[in-house]
């Protein structure tokens, strides 16, 4: 099949322009994204360090050579290019129940003097993050209207007015949505009469920074063979019957309520963390 990609844009008064990106294979749409994006990039001049603030412009286009629906087991990619050598890329992966952004890639060309005046380098720089946290249930649209900022190897990418779906069963975004945490705020509906108002149940308060814990695994000689010191925060997705939609929630692992078990072999080790009867996490470490 011939791969074709379509890009359109619309303007929101007083806001950054939102771009619509659509990846098609034949007559079928596999990825569709509506989003606004801005970038904060630090670069060096001959005598100082500066920060460039860049927005994804309405002139952005889809790179037909690197965007893909991900056939034959390869990753799905949506890559938008803009300006002289700049690009924004999203790669997607999936399992039986959810899809997610596997990698967020930002490429910028320091020789573009309109964006990086007096830069002391003309390199084309590519930075990648594999810890994005954008994911949704299969056959639902990921929605995050609120600004969400992601660190990418020292630079930042901020998305807003974002609605996207990968591995689409049809050509339109699903009416069922998986909502990001930032959009789950307390809201009050307009009054239905002069004296009554309806209040939506507030979303759970984010748990904040997770507490760090120290976890041991010992071998047969009662000697510690694995030591992990870390704080763990989980971004979980589930279907809320009360809200009749898929929602996302942050959960912190409490080290004081967590039991660590595991084993050590010659070239590998396993660590299992269990918090009461609620959470079980399994880690495997291998020497390479």
Shape: globular
Specify the structural class.
mainly beta
The main sheet comes to: 10 strands, mixed
CATH class designation of the largest domain: Mainly Beta
Q: Which value, in Å, is the CA radius of gyration? A: 22 Å
Strand share of the residues?
over 45%
Number of helices, where a helix is a run of at least 4 consecutive DSSP H or I residues? 0
Give the % helix.
Answer: under 10%
Q: Report the mean per-residue pLDDT as an integer.
A: 81
CATH topology of the largest domain: Porin
Q: Would you count the extended β strands for me?
A: 21
Stretches with pLDDT under 50, minimum 5 residues: 1-15
Query: What's the order of the H and E elements?
Result: EEEEEEEEEEEEEEEEEEEEE
Number of domains: 2
CATH architectural designation of the largest domain: Beta Barrel
**CA-CA gap between termini:** 40 Å
Biased composition (Low complexity): 187-202
GO biological process, one term: establishment of protein localization to organelle
Domain Lysosome-associated membrane glycoprotein 2-like luminal: 20-164, 210-287
Family: Belongs to the LAMP family.
